[in-house]
Design goal:
Layout: H1 2-20, H2 22-29, H3 43-63, H4 66-84, H5 89-139, H6 142-147, H7 150-192, H8 194-201, H9 204-241, H10 243-248, H11 252-304, H12 311-352, E1 373-381, E2 390-398, E3 402-406, H13 413-419, E4 428-433, E5 436-437, H14 443-448, E6 450-453, H15 464-469, H16 477-486, H17 490-495, H18 513-527, E7 531-535, H19 543-557, E8 561-565, H20 569-574, E9 577-582, E10 585-590, H21 592-598, H22 601-610
Parallel strand pairs: 3-8, 3-9, 6-7, 7-8
Antiparallel strand pairs: 1-2, 1-4, 4-5, 9-10
Helix pairs in contact: 1-5, 1-7, 2-4, 2-5, 2-12, 3-4, 4-7, 5-7, 7-8, 7-9, 7-12, 9-11, 9-12, 11-12, 16-18, 18-19
The protein binds adenosine-5'-diphosphate (ADP) and magnesium ion.
């Protein structure tokens, strides 16, 4: 940043200097072409006069005193003119031309160096925002993910951070450069004729007010527009994931018109945004042009009347004040982009400021392995306040036990299962493991000891091997094969075109449901957890795959502690205890035979569902 700032200030100074060359050009060359014919060597005196002024200028730049820069710059120009006074215009012309080329070269090199230094800072900031946003997302809990739309999060990552990037370029590169340029030109103009310069300055307050009002409007609209953009990335994503259903229901037209509706709102907001953005720079330029017109008239009259203003000075002033328009124009355009960036930054930081509810405790009780029992003690839970999902749930799961949860759907079985990995915390009551409340123990240690297999398997677009190993790349292939064998997956994996190196497509799209499930089980086998949770792991499968997956599950639960949400009789009969869950309560509990004898709800369920199996 320091390097860039230095380059920027020097860039601006040299831009001013290239304009300042007009003064000797007019006052020494053109105004004297008829009289000056004598040739004398002006170079020594040039060196002396300008050298002094340059060193002044140098020290003033270092102290960064704008008035100093301006007076030193003025001295420099006067010095140049005095040096040239007695010289051959032809020679002076050559010196001016060469000087100009040199200054422009230097100026452009400095301009490039500013971008060179700043781009690193800028890209670093963008990468660090995306990085910390991602890490923050990883920390947020399940509650956030069940309510958020992934398209919205994605829009924040891509287009909002992109807008911030854009605004940052403007804020760090363009605006400061133009601002310093503006100061230099203003200094030059003040030096050339302070009277005329003050008249020019009158244009500023109304222009600023105009820009300020416009900024507000722009920011609000951008906010809205970004939300619409999120809407359509969300819908796009839903459609891609749900394309099977869309096609099966012949809903292409319906989805098409839904999308068109969102597009339409977005298009309209963006159109008016673009128009308003385009409004800023012409308005400021027109205001500038009116001021310039007045100045040309007023200044021109002063020159014509032969007063204090020389043609050279007037032209320097004119060039400086006309050059001021460009920075003003650029700054007002930049401003609208900065407003867009700020609106996006607000959206990004809204997400960044979300605090996860489930956090690692401050002073966690270490949890290395499961020793004794998991206990639910009077657990009450609700997703939304006022709608209880679990009421006074109490039971314990001892080491080595297999507990099956059964009951009507919506009863709260999955919710009970989600409390064990601490995806949610109970509203009242507590879940204890080996005597400690889950909220007090080491979250990572707890989850490391849990294996979870759910109805929807999560696979990544990677090889079979990496999907089983998930993150542990050093695991030897033999161990992976063994896990696949326990999970009853070895056969089909070896039949795949590239075996364990086959890439299985996004979310495992190239595999059947049963195959996906067996890979998920192999993953759990390899993790070798003490406690297993199955949430209807086989219910999405046909009878044949179900039988194969069931075999895999049987291999996995041997010698471990399991909580199984089940709808198959064979699993239930294997369970040491069955809990019948309805409306968030444990209604009946006991072994399969005990519950049958009870002749209650479980018996009813059994007669309806299982008796045929
Ligand atoms: N993320 C959620 N937000 C709000 N309500 C939910 C959420 N998940 C589940 N529910 C509700 O909680 C109740 C229990 O759901 P669940 O535990 O999935 O039942 P089961 O697994 O027995 O079918 C249901 O009424 C369901 O609508
Ligand atoms: Mg469920």
């Amino acid at each position: 940043m320091t390097g860039a700032m230095l380059c920027m200030v020097l860039f601006a100074v040299f831009s001013g200097a290239s304009l300042g060359m007009i003064l000797p050009l007019f006052d020494n060359v053109f105004s004297r072409t008829d009289t000056a014919t004598e040739k004398c060597d002006f170079l020594p005196s040039l060196r002396q006069n300008t050298g002094e002024a340059f060193s002044n200028l140098g020290s003033e730049i270092i102290s960064l005193h704008p008035r100093g820069v301006y007076s030193a710059g003025g001295e420099l120009l006067e010095g140049l003119r005095d040096t040239f006074k007695e010289s051959d215009p032809q020679q002076v012309l050559i010196v001016i031309v060469l000087g100009l080329i040199f200054i422009v070269l230097l100026k452009n090199f400095l301009g490039f160096m500013q971008v060179f230094f700043l781009s690193r800072a800028e890209q670093g900031v963008v990468a660090s925002i995306r990085g910390s946003l991602y890490n923050h997302l990883l920390q947020l809990d399940m509650g956030f993910y069940t309510s958020v739309r992934s398209g919205d999060v994605m829009a924040k990552f891509t287009s909002d951070v992109g807008n911030m990037n854009w605004a940052m370029t403007e804020m760090m590169m363009s605006v400061p450069r133009q601002f310093v340029l503006l100061l230099v030109y203003l200094g030059l103009a003040l030096w050339a004729s302070w009277r005329l310069a003050l008249i020019t300055l009158l244009v500023f307050p109304p222009a600023m007010l105009f820009i300020l009002i416009l900024s507000r409007r722009l920011r609000k609209k951008t906010h809205y527009s970004q939300e619409k953009l999120s809407d359509f990335s969300a819908l796009l994503q839903e459609t891609i994931f749900g394309i099977r259903i869309v096609k099966a229901f012949s809903m292409e037209k319906f989805e098409g018109s839904r999308f068109a509706g969102i597009l339409d709102v977005h298009r309209r907001t963006e159109t008016s945004l673009q128009r308003e953005r385009a409004f800023a720079s012409p308005v400021t330029e027109i205001m500038g042009a009116i001021a310039s017109g007045f100045i040309m008239w007023y200044g021109g009259s002063a020159v014509l009347s032969g007063g204090s203003l020389s043609t050279g000075r007037f032209l320097v002033f004119l060039a400086a004040s006309l050059s001021m328009m460009k920075p003003i124009k650029i700054i007002s355009t930049a401003n609208s982009r900065i407003q867009t960036g700020i609106a996006s930054a607000e959206r990004v930081f809204d997400l960044m400021d979300l605090e996860p509810v489930i956090k690692q405790p401050v002073d966690p009780v270490p949890f290395d392995s499961f020793a004794d029992r998991i206990e639910f003690r009077d657990v009450c839970f609700s997703y939304e306040t006022g709608i209880p999902v679990l009421t006074d749930v109490s039971f314990s799961l001892d080491k080595g036990e297999i507990i099956a949860l059964v009951g009507p759907s919506g009863g709260g079985k999955s919710t009970i299962a989600d409390l064990i990995p601490r995806f949610y915390d109970p509203d009242s009551g507590s879940v204890l493991i080996d005597g400690s409340d889950l909220r007090a123990i080491d979250l990572e240690g707890l989850r490391r000891n849990l294996g979870v297999v759910t109805q929807e398997t999560v696979l990544f677009n990677d090889t079979v091997r990496n999907n089983i190993a998930y993150g542990e790349e050093s695991i030897p292939i033999e161990k992976i094969k063994l896990a696949a064998e326990v999970a009853n997956a070895l056969q089909f994996v070896e039949d795949l075109p590239d075996g364990f190196s086959t890439v299985i497509g996004e979310r495992g799209a190239r595999l059947s449901g049963g195959q996906r499930q067996r890979l998920a089980i192999a993953r759990a086998v390899l993790k070798d957890p003490d406690i297993l949770i199955f949430d209807e792991a086989t219910s999405a499968l046909d009878t044949h795959s179900e039988r194969q997956v069931q075999k895999a599950i049987d291999g996995l639960i041997e010698g471990r502690t399991s909580l199984i949400i089940a709808h198959r009789l064979s699993t239930i009969t294997k369970a040491t205890r069955v809990l019948y869950i309805e409306n968030g309560r444990i209604v009946e509990s006991g072994t399969h035979t005990e519950l049958l004898k009870l002749n209650g709800k479980y018996r009813l369920l059994y007669d309806m569902q299982f008796s045929g199996q």
